[in-house]
Design a protein that fits this description.
CATH class of the largest domain: Alpha Beta
Structural class: alpha+beta
Strand order of the largest sheet: 16-15-14-17-18
Radius of gyration: 22 Å
Distance between the termini: 35 Å
CATH superfamily of the largest domain: ATP-grasp fold, B domain
Largest sheet: 5 strands, antiparallel
Shape: globular
Length: 324
């Protein structure tokens, strides 16, 4: 018999964040069906039909388990990977199959009448930093002065117009391997002579004013509940971008100012998101400045360090709780 009233967890094979949620749902006795879209079509089968206004019905199945699509309680959309097709398939056929899978399987899943964390379309839109910054400012959050450009001259003029150092940030996480070593690009503070480097002309670049910091804050919002932790960095690299050196970090639970809390909730409401992992800089004078929000960010490292019940809040939402 197909599993019903379940939480569908869409993520990759290795995802410690999803594991936390699945373990808690299992502890609560809530049925869970975990799948990765990379399993489609060889290890994941779908058969769904639409008859009138009752919505889509049918099944999603692996070799061992079957899910009743009409009875999915909610979807935890973490980090599923792309469908995989036979190597014997030509490049042209593979391209067509991938597009059909995205619009067929992906479209079917997005059409399920249930709550999502996060809704994939809205989450994808919210990944755009220019949109984040605009909505953050409109919601009442302080944001750094920012320039997006591919003009070295414009970058130099921006650097000359501000009194603080200039920070370069990539728009997307950049990770890879060079000569067998794992490498990543993090936020970096530039010398003034670097802002107009010729490489700026090769693509879009994001430059911001440096905001003096006493520490940073990771604020995780789940359906109106806010969980904030100060992040204190001990290494010079982590003081610029704490993601570059997790081993040097200390954490402390804190409460966001009332105005910041209200602005965070307004921002998520405007973006249509039930979840967001916010990063803030807190100045020596106590001012909070918004840096970015990840609509599907990891939170386990904060929960482990502080005991903040973020997993429980996520599971409450996925189970259908309306507490805010």
């Amino acid at each position: 018999m197909p599993i019903a009233d379940a939480v569908l967890v869409l993520t990759g094979t290795f995802d410690p964040t999803a594991d936390l949620v699945i373990e808690e749902l299992n502890r609560r006795g809530t049925p869970v069906f975990r799948a990765d879209t990379a399993w489609f079509p060889s290890r994941l089968a779908v058969a769904a039909g639409l008859d009138g206004a009752s919505g889509w019905g049918g099944t999603l199945a692996t070799e061992r388990r079957t899910l009743d699509l009409a009875a999915v309680r909610s979807v935890y959309f973490r980090r599923p990977t792309a469908p995989e097709f036979p190597e014997s398939m030509s490049a042209e056929a593979g391209s067509v199959a991938a597009a059909e899978a995205r619009r067929g399987l992906g479209g079917l899943l997005s059409a399920l009448s249930c709550r999502w964390l996060p809704p994939p379309g809205r989450a994808a839109d919210a990944e755009y930093k220019p949109l984040q910054l605009r909505v953050a400012a409109e919601s009442g959050l302080r944001v750094p002065r920012t320039l997006i450009t591919n003009s070295p001259d414009a970058a130099r003029e921006f650097a000359d117009s501000i009194s603080t150092p200039v920070v370069y940030k990539p728009f997307t996480p950049i990770r890879g391997t060079i000569d067998g070593r794992s490498v990543a690009v993090y936020a970096s503070v530039l010398d003034r002579g670097e802002a107009d480097h010729p490489s700026v002309s090769t693509t879009a670049h994001l430059f911001q004013e440096w905001v003096p910091k006493a520490y940073e804050v990771r604020l995780t919002a789940v359906h109106g509940q806010l969980f904030a932790a100060e992040i204190h960095a001990k290494s010079e690299a982590a003081k610029v971008d704490w993601r570059s050196d997790y081993d040097s970090l200390n954490y402390r639970v804190c409460d966001p100012p009332t105005a910041v809390a209200g602005a965070v909730r307004r921002m998520l409401d405007r973006l249509g998101l039930p979840y967001g992992a916010f990063d803030f800089v807190v100045s020596p004078s106590g001012d909070w400045t918004f840096l970015e929000v990840n609509p599907n960010g990891q939170y386990g490292f904060v929960e482990q360090a502080t005991g903040l019940p973020i997993t429980a809040a996520i599971c409450d939402y996925l189970e259908g709780g309306d507490r805010a």
